[in-house]
Design a protein that fits this description.
The chain is an alpha/beta fold. Helices cover 26% and strands 25% of the residues. The protein is built from 5 helices and 14 strands.
Length: 220
Amino acid sequence: MTEKSFKGRTVLLTAGPTHEPIDPVRFIGNHSTGKMGYALAECFAQQGAKVILVSGPTNLHPQHEGITKVAVTTADQMFAAVQAEAKAADIWVFAAAVADYRPKTVAEKKIKKAGDELTIELVKNVDIAAALGKQKKANQFSVGFALETDNESANASEKLCKKNLDMIVLNSLNDAGAGFAHDTNKITIIEKDATHTFALKQKSEVAQDITKLILERIYG
């Protein structure tokens, strides 16, 4: 891989969590820090790509001048931002940990404590990768991520097909040093006809493994 490996290519990449508001001070979210997505953004940019980074709330900031960050908070906002950029992008990478559900209604004021229980009705968020998969053109390459705790390979393979992905990056919370909040990750990349397993590495190195395989698939 070189500084020109992805020259002339536009990469649309999602990263970080989404926060789904309950009231003005509370939200539903997850433990994603965005580190894997940001590492991928830097790796693509270093290899010449123009990167559109649609990022949920994180403490991270892109360093490479080839990265344009679009900051969002909720899943709906992320979906809108991705839709606006998807048509012009050659490569889609869905690395964000998007909340599956959001509160059906958002309280205008802070919900006060009252009683021993609080019930919040949730509705499903749009599956961004699946929705974009229906629009994918033959010349576009799509990569998803799956964080699993059981039946890892089977669940990831199912997502690969359902979301019309070209490959999916699987990591398991059962692997020490992988998943949220770590600087390391241990991944398996699943394609329709192949599976590639990697050792535990720094996320910057994991990003190189992922971009290298994408490069091989695009250029043969």
